[in-house]
Every structure is written in structure tokens, then in C-alpha cells.
Design a protein that fits this description.
The radius of gyration is 20 Å and the shape is globular. The protein is built from 6 helices and 21 strands. Helix 2 packs parallel to helix 3. Strands 10, 11, 15, 18, 19 and 20 form a 6-stranded mixed sheet that branches. It is α+β, with helices and mostly antiparallel strands and 335 residues long.
Length: 335
């Protein structure tokens, strides 16, 4: 139903199906029966972009509820467009999660306790969830709310939208965070590597556009400082590409000083494979001096350091242009 209560229930249902071994799941965005008011439909689109299976669908003879329906405002359309573009940007990460679900039976969208089983505070959380091990999603599930009371387990977290780290004092606590009408709260777990891609009108076109990697360093005072992730890539259409090795699978390991990209499988060949253009490292501590990509030094303008919070910085590497089907090493030297 197009009611706020069912918006919340859809999270519970999605997580239950993941536990049952059915990862490709998602409710009808904006509800199937009833008239979805604009605010509900907006918040449902923002949540729905993080359903593993996302679609806006309702019963015949109900009012239109697609983003371009005449009854919705321009602000609504702009906010929904932002949510859609976020999903398209994160598709390489989502597609890689589905690869792991196919090969290992792992969950795509999963309860927080599945990532932090020893944290008893996570055991009854059903208003937040994770995508894999890297992204924490805290949707707005109540009418007129522009804040979310979100729980943050014990590790470093970064705001997806700003790259700013959360304070250490926020760990293992509920924190009230802003959730304006045009944005859903998303946080990146320290230690995660998130592959991304420029968005387009459809995956047919976006798959040829430049890619990026976001590296979220863990708390460097309490860990070995390594972030780990991977990327799975194939033609996006054929079946059994993994079984026939017609695919690309790369492991990515990163510290503050070095990024290792290892293509364990490179059976899929395409003259139009995208390049990894930009790399963003969250949580560095020093000013960069030199960067070498496969022993070739980047120009000074290709490495930019920006201040964030708590004496941490964000390092962005531009136009590195590395292939996704070959091994690469990136060495970073600091002042």
C-alpha cells in the first residue's frame, strides 16, 4: 500500500528475502495500491534506489506515480533524478555484489548485524541496512522528517555526499543526522573500496563512460590501514560469464601510500572497456608530494588534497586512466 508504514515494512521484507537467499528483491516504489502523496513517493524513490531490484510500479487505474507525472512538483523531479543518478553511479559496486551473491550466496542488501554480529545494538535494527560491507543506508521512513536517528557501529565512517569522516565519538551510538528532502543519508565504511561510474540515460550508454574508485581508509590509529574491495565486469547481458570465464574480476587493496589493482580474471575483452579515470582516497593525513601510476609520475594538477574534519584529508587523483583488465600499482608519496 502507498502508506508510510509499508515504506518501513519494505525494508524488513527486503532484508528477510536476503536472508532466505533471494537477493534480487525490492518492493514497488511508491506502493502498488493507493495514491502515493508526493513526499511519500519521494522518500520511497530514495529508498528504492537501494533496493537490489528497483522499479516504480502500481495497479491499473490508480494515479500515475512515475517521476514525470504531472501531479508532482519540479522539486520532486529534481530530487528523484538525484536519487536515480546515485544508483547509476554505484552500479559497478552493486553489480559486483550480485556477482558475489551468485558465486558465494552472500547478501546484497543485508542487516547491519550481518556485518557487525558481535554488536548487540545492531540485532534489532530494521530501519537501516547495508549494501555489502561498504555502504550504510539510513532512509527517511517517517512523514515530514528531515532528520534520521541512525546507528553507527564501531569503525570509521564517511559521509558519502561530502567525504567527511564521522567523529570517533559517534561510534557504537545513535546519532541524529540531517536528511533534507533531496537526499538520503549514505555512509561509507572505513576499509571499503567502492567502484563507481559516470551515469547516463541507460546502462547501454553508461557502461562505456569513465569509472572511478572511492577508497575509504579505516581508522589508521587502530588498524593496519588497509582498505579492500573488488570489481566484477562482463558484457552485462550474457548468462554464465563467470562459469565460462568471459569476465573480469579485479581485487583492489589500498593503504595511505599504495594502491594495488590486480586483475585475477581478464577473460572478457572489449575494445570499448571503460577506464578508471579518477580515484578518491578518504581519510589521508598528510599533504601529497608525488604520485606514480605504474611508475609514471602524475602531473601536479592531477593530485588534489582537500581538508575535511578531525585533521583528515581527501586525496583525489584525476585522469589516471588505468584499464580494468590489467594489473596496476599506484605509489603515493607525502611531504
Amino acid at each position: 500500500m502507498s502508506i508510510w508504514k509499508d515504506l518501513h515494512y519494505s525494508v524488513i521484507g527486503m532484508l528477510e528475502f536476503g536472508l532466505f537467499g533471494i537477493p534480487f528483491v525490492g518492493a514497488n516504489i511508491c506502493g502498488y495500491f493507493g495514491e502515493a502523496e508526493e513526499q511519500l513517493c519521494l522518500r520511497w524513490h530514495q529508498l528504492g534506489m537501494f533496493y537490489p531490484f528497483a522499479r516504480n510500479h502500481n495497479v491499473r487505474d490508480e494515479l500515475d506515480q512515475d517521476p514525470m507525472a504531472d501531479r508532482f512538483s519540479l522539486d520532486f523531479r529534481i530530487a528523484v533524478k538525484k536519487a536515480l543518478e546515485t544508483r547509476y553511479t554505484l552500479l559497478p559496486y552493486l553489480y559486483s555484489l550480485f556477482h558475489h551473491a551468485h558465486v558465494n550466496g552472500s547478501m546484497v542488501a543485508k542487516p547491519i548485524w550481518a556485518e557487525f554480529p558481535n554488536d548487540v545494538n545492531t540485532w534489532d535494527i530494521d530501519r537501516q541496512f547495508m549494501w555489502g560491507s561498504g555502504l550504510l543506508i539510513s532512509p527517511v521512513l517517517d512523514k515530514d522528517s528531515v532528520k534520521v536517528n541512525a546507528y553507527f557501529p564501531d569503525c570509521r565512517w564517511y559521509d558519502y555526499w561530502t567525504g567527511h569522516p564521522m567523529a570517533r565519538t559517534s561510534q557504537r551510538r545513535y546519532i541524529t543526522i540531517d536528511a533534507p528532502f533531496d537526499q538520503i543519508p549514505i555512509h561509507i565504511k572505513g576499509g571499503a573500496v567502492i567502484p563507481t561510474q559516470w551515469h547516463s540515460q541507460s546502462t547501454r550508454f553508461s557502461r562505456f563512460l569513465g569509472m572511478g574508485i572511492t577508497i575509504a581508509l579505516p581508522d589508521l590509529d587502530f588498524t593496519d590501514g588497509t582498505a579492500i574491495g573488488d570489481l566484477f565486469w562482463d558484457d552485462g547481458d550474457s548468462r554464465n560469464t563467470y562459469e565460462y570465464r568471459n569476465d573480469i574480476f579485479a581485487r583492489i587493496e589500498a593503504t595511505e601510500d599504495r594502491i594495488s589493482y590486480v586483475a585475477d580474471r581478464a577473460g572478457y575483452d572489449d575494445p570499448y572497456l571503460p577506464l578508471i579515470q579518477n580515484i578518491t582516497i578518504l581519510g589521508t593525513r598528510k599533504e601529497v608530494y608525488q604520485v606514480f601510476v605504474d611508475h609514471q609520475q602524475l602531473q601536479p594538477w592531477q593530485a588534489e588534497t582537500t581538508e575535511t574534519l578531525y585533521n583528515l584529508k581527501t586525496l583525489t587523483l584525476y585522469n589516471v586512466d588505468i584499464t580494468i583488465n590489467e594489473d596496476h600499482d599506484i605509489d603515493i608519496r607525502y611531504i
